[in-house]
Amino acid sequence: MTPSNRIQRVSDTQGRAAWLVSGHEWVRELLADPRLSRSHPNPEHPVRLTQPGLFGGPIPDPEGELADLQRMRKLLTPSLSARRMESLRPRVETIVDALLDELGRSGSPADFHTIVAFPLPALVICELLGVPAEDRADFCRWQIEAKQVSRPAVARGGLQSLWRYLGTLIERKRWVGSDDVISDLLDAAKRDPKLTDDGIAHLAAGLLFAGHAPVVAIIDRGMLLLLTHSEQREALRRDPALAAGAVEEIFRFASPIERLRTARRGGLTRYASVDIEVEGATIRAGDTVMFAVQEANEDESVFSDPKRFDITRERIPHLSLSHGAHFCLGAHLARVKLQYLFVRSFERFPRLRLAVPLEEIQPVRDAVAGAVSRLPVIW
Ligand code: HEM
Question: Which atom of ligand 1 lies closest to the CA of 324?
Answer without folding.
Answer: 15
